[in-house]
Amino acid sequence: MRVSASSVVLRRGDSLDCLNEFEAEATGHGILTREFEDFVLHPADPGAAKALIVGVDLSTCDRVREVKRSLRRIEQQIDDSCALLEGDAHVYVIIKGGAARSSRVLPIYETLAEKLHALAGSSHGIEITSRVIDCTDCTDSSLLARRIVGDVSSAEDGTPASALIWHELADSSISQAALSDYL
Fold first, then answer.
1. What is the pTM of this model?
2. Of 27, 40, 81, 114, whose CB is crowded by the most CB atoms within 10 A?
3. CB count, 10 Å around CB of 134?
4. pLDDT tens for residues 137-177?
């Protein structure tokens, strides 16, 4: 079976427990998940992928300054990865936070989401939806997987860039939570 670009989701970054159920959920919806490096070396189909999920483990970051430094390091890596995405793609940065979980951290995540959205347009000429989701308190990896698969598969309009916290996804889709956050 030939895999179309619209059914490929790339995974990159740290392995997080909250993402353990994603591959099974995606497969159940006809979505192929591929490790980024494997996709680069052996593309399933010429062209691009529909989404990129990047796991980021910040659990060792005790200070806000360390969070900023760590995210700055991966920002360019994520931007480079966007070259393999098609237009109207999704980028999810899934974060496991650490001790630095003050009210000052969410604005850093919002800035990252906005920056990734802008960079994809200026560097690669594509429109992406960028979501940074703090899943530190995630207690249901199956629900997170359903929310991401639902968002990738949905035609719902939402905000182009947003930062969310796990509890915002308990009762609503990612797009709805992002829109509520925006309003």
1. 0.92
2. 81
3. 23
4. 999 999 999 999 999 988 676 789 999 999 999 899 999 99
